[in-house]
Amino acid sequence: LHWQIECSQGNSRPALKQGEDHSALVFVSQRRPPVSTPLSGSDVEKEKETHNYLSKEEIQEKIHKYNLAVTDKLKMTLLQNPNGTYTGFIKVQMELCKPPQAPAPGNSGCMNTLHISSTNTVGEVIEALLKKFLVTESPAKFALYKRCYREDQVYACKLSDREHPLYLRLAAGPRTDTLSFVLREHEIGEVKWEAFSLPELQNFLRILDKEEDEQLYNLKRRYTAYRQKLEAALSEVWKPG
C-alpha cells in the first residue's frame, strides 16, 4: 500500500509536498458541534444508496464541481489512470473519551488533515491515524464516524471498515458543516473481540480479574465497617442500665 498521510494539530500546517501550491493549506480550528444522535435505519439505507461507484467521466465532473466549491485549496486530483482513482483531503476530528496509550499527549479533540486516495478504506485511515500518533492500542478498539447535519439536527453514523472516506467527501462536497469525520472508541458492546490476539485477550482477563478483586475488597471493607458500627450501636442499646 503506497499512500501519504499528512496530519495537522492545533494551528500547524500539514506536511507539504514538493511542486504543489500550499500557500493556503492552513489548518483552521473547528468549533465542536452539538451532541450527535445516531442515524435511523431508513436514513442509513438512504446514505448507502448514494455510495454507488461512478464512471470516470462522472468522477471527473464531480471533482471539477468539488474543486470549484473548495475555499481552502484542499482540492481533489484525478489521477492519469483508467480506473478513475483520485486523491484528496479529509479532516478527522479525534474525540476520545480517554487518552490513548501514546507517548504524545493532547491528541484528543484535535483536528487532523489527511491526504489519501479514493482506494483507501476506513480501516486504513484508522490505522494511519493511530500510527501517526504512536497509539499502541489495537485499531479494533476504534471506529470512524461520519457526522451529518440536517435541519439543525446532528446525526452520527459509524462507517464500516471497507467504506471509502474520500468518496463520501466527494459526494457530500467540501463543506464540513454538511459532512465531517470523527474518530472515536467503540462504544461498550461494540468491541470486535475476535480482532484481538490471544495474548491481548488474556491481558484483558487479567485486568478484569484485578479490577474485580479490588471491587470485592472495597465492598467487603465497607460492609465490615458498617457491621462494626451497627454492632457498637446495638451494644449501647442493650447495655444494662
Automatic annotation (TrEMBL):
Keywords: Acetylation, Cytoplasm, Cytoskeleton, Microtubule. It is found in: Cytoplasm, Cytoskeleton. One of its GO terms (biological process) is signal transduction. Its main location: cytoplasm. Pfam families: Nore1-SARAH, RA. InterPro entries: RA_dom, RASSF1-6, SARAH_dom, Ubiquitin-like_domsf. GO terms for molecular function: identical protein binding. Residues 190-237 form the SARAH domain. One of its GO terms (cellular component) is plasma membrane. Residues 86-188 form the Ras-associating domain. SMART domains: RA. This is Ras association domain-containing protein 3. It comes from Myotis lucifugus. The gene is RASSF3.
